[in-house]
Amino acid sequence: MKVWRKRTPMYVYQKMIIVFLILVMPIYGISLVFNWTSMNHLRDEAERSLAKNVSFYTNQLNEQISFIRNLQLQLIHNSDLQSLAFYAGNISGYEEVALVNRIHESLTTIQNASDYVVNAGTYIKSYKHTLSTEMGTSKLPNPEHNMVQALIEQAGEQPIYAWNDRILFIMTGNRGSIVSYLELSKEKLAETISQITGSYQRAGVFMIDDASRIVVQSQSDLADVTALMKGLPKLEEAWRGANYS
Fold first, then answer.
1. Which residue in 11, 81, 94, 149 is deepest, having the highest Cβ count within 10 Å?
2. Residues 6 or more apart from 230 whose CB is under 8 A from it?
3. 142-147, long-range: CB within 8 Å, 24+ apart, which pairs?
4. DSSP state at residue 222
5. Residue 72 parent element (H or E)
6. Could you tell me which of 67, 187, 71, 61 has the C-alpha nearest to residue 122?
7. Percentage of the chain exceeding pLDDT 90
8. Tens digit of pLDDT for each residue in 5-61?
């Protein structure tokens, strides 16, 4: 005896699938919208946080640089420095020693005034000596004088100079007869600009000079922004190791 079973029509299963999709798709869609909204919110928060860091640390660095440059400008017009430049060779030994000591005190004050300054110096052409916190008093020519003079001759007047791993502010006075130079700490600058990106792993910061050469960069790995730099030929050249001298 044969038993016949009634087969469920295919369209019943199709209806079940359609009903299932009708029930599930809104939930899935809401989940996608929620995730997308959350992702955009987190991205916006990260961008706002980064923008605040950039503004804060940039202003802080600008204030420090302005402060250092003002100290350097005051040094150029320092009365002891001007007197030594004017009376060089025509003053007694005691007066010369007194002037030199007071200038050294001024240089030390400038260096101690900012953590960014690691060496403060000046050379006076008429006096034929360099005075600096690093070398003391040295006759011309000497390594510091040669470096500063070469930078001025090669690059002319500009706000910041990079010489190998050294960063300097150089300022001239009395038609070039007096030259003041301040060496900045590359490590301190790198530490400051590294704080801009904070804990962001795929971010970095760098400072460039007037020739678009990298002067100092953060400790972050900038390998992920190589593609960005391909659109900036000068920066790409600096990134690949352009000669700073």
1. 81
2. 236
3. 144/181
4. G
5. helix 10-76
6. 71
7. 35
8. 555 555 666 767 776 667 667 777 777 777 777 777 777 777 777 778 778 888 888
